[in-house]
Design a protein that fits this description.
By secondary structure, this protein is α/β, with parallel strands linked by helices. Helices cover about 40% and strands about 15% of the residues.
């Protein structure tokens, strides 16, 4: 696992002191560990590594400094041990020569920083999907950048203006859109973007665009075979030389797809499941693990204050000793994350595609927003009026940014470039605490390029996915799997005594672990309550109704808690700060 943070001064004389370097080190990781540091009068970088990959993600020579987060998978494995370090050296050499093709050749999830000592120039780049984040602030004097948003929060030279649009976008879409963050002046590199800086240049551009992928002319059968081969290769290159692996295994299709391929390669698998009691998710995972004969560990996730990173980390820490003795890559875990959007096309349906195909774009976008919202009533009337059209305007802006004649595929690209791209950003934000790296075959760019080359209609409702199963080992369909409501049902007979996770979420109202009456009174009547933005009376009334178990307003409290956390760090707020500085 690698995180990096740094600063570049546009002042020729430079003034980067040890105090800035120490600040970056202390804010980059909240755990003790080893740091690599390089600095001169105009540039400094710190890199933290807990050695999950077992090989360095930092390189310094007489001409360059290079830092890497994640794994690019630039080099072909072909049965040999994959070299992350060699990838870093190749990327560094090529970018210093101005060759962006090296980035287009990478299939993995990564971000990179390359500094040319001779030219005093810097390149920051993310993978084609932008899954491995780089946050940055830039003005006339400085560029600050980091793998963690939290590291930039500590820098006093960066103004902290609260971005209200990002807080509205997050509950509506699941993530802030585009390059938005919670702060107006801190931005996020997008999918396939790079930022190039020197003493006389600030250039933000794209080395890869998803909407430039040419439509394919394959038959349906060839598309299925080609995409399966790409997926199988995506799993294979992430295995490298491993004989035993860890994997997450739910009761759904995505993690099963990964585990099925791992098992077909003859790997010894230890699979984790983190479901609640009585779910289809746990029952089907256990049945599948038994059917293919792999080691299976069911761990109940905590009822409150849990994250995927900490839950997976705890499970790894508790693996029995004989498994630990055999496996020396304890902090690497395969997951099926990304399959539901990438291949299953969730959040899209035939009605949405029909409206888009008829060029009724605004109607289609509002149809998509129909069941998505945010707690509007807690805002003061004048603030709500200013925010009312933020969801539609943000969605329209992102949709219009995508080129190409296939309007149905454009909406998929909106989801890919936003929901999919930022789905794991909170996991990476806390990676310094859990020290776990995920191996993510469904984020493999060569697989996704194959999907993007085909029309979206055939993928809706997991239709393509179900046809795809013919190419997997027969044991895939030995037991049933959990399916999304409204999508193709599982063809394998199943036990109706188990409840699916979505129905269980609806059933579980008034979840344990909420704030006490005293805690909420302290919050509502606190001096730093955002009274110029929110209505204290509405939030107070919502808490009373929740406390008396009359109405489940837990979503309001989650929203308010996060909002107040960032509000306390800011000197002012802005309704819309989408305009970029460069």
């Amino acid at each position: 696992m690698t995180l990096f943070a740094g600063v570049y001064s546009f002042k020729p004389e430079g003034n980067i002191g040890n105090d800035i370097i120490q600040l970056l080190k202390s804010s980059l990781s909240r755990r003790a560990g080893e740091f690599d540091v390089y600095s001169n009068h105009t540039f400094a970088i710190v890199k933290y590594d807990c050695k999950a990959f077992g090989v360095p993600g930092f390189a310094e020579s007489g001409t360059s400094v290079a830092a890497l987060a994640g794994e690019p998978y630039l080099s072909e494995v072909d049965g040999l041990e994959y070299s992350r370090y060699s990838d870093l050296l190749t990327i560094s050499e090529q970018l210093m020569q101005g060759n962006l093709e090296v980035l287009r050749s990478c299939r993995g999830v990564y971000s990179v920083c390359i500094y040319d000592k001779n030219k005093n120039s810097l390149v920051l780049a993310t993978d084609k999907l932008g899954e491995r984040p780089i946050y940055y602030f830039i003005d006339d004097d400085y560029l600050f950048f980091s793998s963690r948003l939290g590291a930039l929060e500590k820098v006093d030279l960066i103004p902290k203006k609260l971005n209200l649009s990002a807080f509205i976008e997050e509950p509506v879409f699941g993530v802030p859109l585009g390059n938005n963050t919670y702060y107006c002046d801190i931005k996020l590199l997008r999918d396939g973007q790079y930022l190039q800086c020197s003493q006389d240049q600030k250039k933000l551009s794209s080395y890869f665009r998803w909407d430039q992928i040419a439509p394919h002319n394959r038959s349906s059968e060839d598309l299925l075979q080609h995409s399966f081969d790409a997926f199988k290769a995506a799993v294979s290159c992430r295995i490298k030389e491993k004989k035993e692996v860890f994997a997450c295994l739910s009761g759904g299709m995505d993690s099963r797809s990964v585990v099925s391929i791992l098992n077909s390669f003859g790997k010894k698998i230890t699979a984790f499941n983190f479901s609640r009691a009585g779910e289809q998710d746990e029952a089907y995972a256990a049945q599948y693990a038994e059917a293919i004969g792999i080691n299976y560990i069911a761990t109940r996730r905590p009822p409150k204050n849990w994250t995927w990173g900490s839950t997976i980390s705890d499970a790894l820490d508790n693996v029995r000793g004989d498994v630990k003795d055999r496996i020396n890559h304890l902090r690497l875990v395969f997951t099926g994350d990304g399959g539901s959007v990438g291949v299953g096309h969730v959040y899209m349906n035939d009605e949405l595609i029909s409206l888009i195909k008829q060029k009724r774009i605004d109607e289609a976008l509002r149809f998509f927003l129909k069941r998505r919202g945010y707690p509007r009533k807690i805002f003061r009337k004048e603030i709500f009026s200013a925010l009312a059209e933020v969801p539609f305007d943000s969605l329209k802006r992102e949709f219009d940014d995508i080129e190409g004649p296939d309007t149905g595929r454009k909406f998929y690209l909106f989801l890919l470039r936003n929901d999919q791209r930022r789905h794991l950003h909170q996991f990476f934000e806390d990676i310094d605490l859990n020290g776990v790296e995920l191996l993510l075959p469904f984020y493999d760019s060569r697989l996704l390029e194959t999907i993007v080359s085909a029309p979206a209609e055939g993928f809706i409702g997991h239709r393509f996915y179900h046809d795809w199963l013919r190419f997997f080992p027969p044991d895939y369909q030995a037991v049933p799997w959990q399916t999304y409501h409204g999508h193709l049902p599982c063809p394998v007979p199943h036990d109706s005594n188990f409840i699916d996770q979505w129905s269980l979420n609806k059933k579980e109202k008034f979840k344990p672990g909420g704030a006490s009456m005293r805690q909420w009174l302290n919050i509502i009547f606190a001096r730093n309550f955002p009274g110029e933005i929110m209505r204290r009376s509405i939030i107070g009334a919502a808490f009373i109704l929740y406390y008396l178990r009359i109405e489940d307003y837990a979503y309001i409290f989650g929203f308010f808690n996060k909002f107040q956390k960032y509000y306390a760090k800011c000197s002012e707020y802005r309704i819309d700060c989408n305009k970029h500085r460069i």
